[in-house]
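Anyone up for a design puzzle?
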């Protein structure tokens, strides 16, 4: 299944290629599994709403991660498949919905 979401302008991105999204004021930086990045004039909140049918988790205020790209979660750190380590604030730990290694 190849679902795409509209991310801004005339741009659509296949959901299964999105590793994580990063807030940049009123813009969002979309990090793809290919290593490419797309800067769009759409807020992270708007993209989070568009991605709600899919498995994405808000790790912290400015980061939204695809659950499919999570390698492991240890204590307050989430490691993605590309070995990027993101810190999870303590107040978000109980809301973090990842349940695997």
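Challenge accepted. My sequence:
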């Amino acid at each position: 299944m190849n679902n795409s979401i509209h991310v801004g302008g005339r741009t659509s991105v296949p959901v299964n290629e999105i590793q994580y999204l990063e807030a940049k004021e009123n813009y969002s930086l979309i990090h793809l599994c290919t290593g490419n990045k797309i800067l769009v004039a759409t807020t992270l909140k708007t993209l989070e709403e568009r991605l709600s049918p899919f498995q994405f988790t808000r790790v912290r205020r400015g980061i939204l991660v695809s659950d499919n790209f999570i390698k492991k979660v240890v204590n307050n750190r989430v490691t993605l498949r590309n070995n990027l380590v993101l810190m999870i604030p303590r107040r978000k730990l109980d809301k973090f919905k990842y349940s695997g290694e």
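A detail worth pointing out: The chain has a mean pLDDT of 87.
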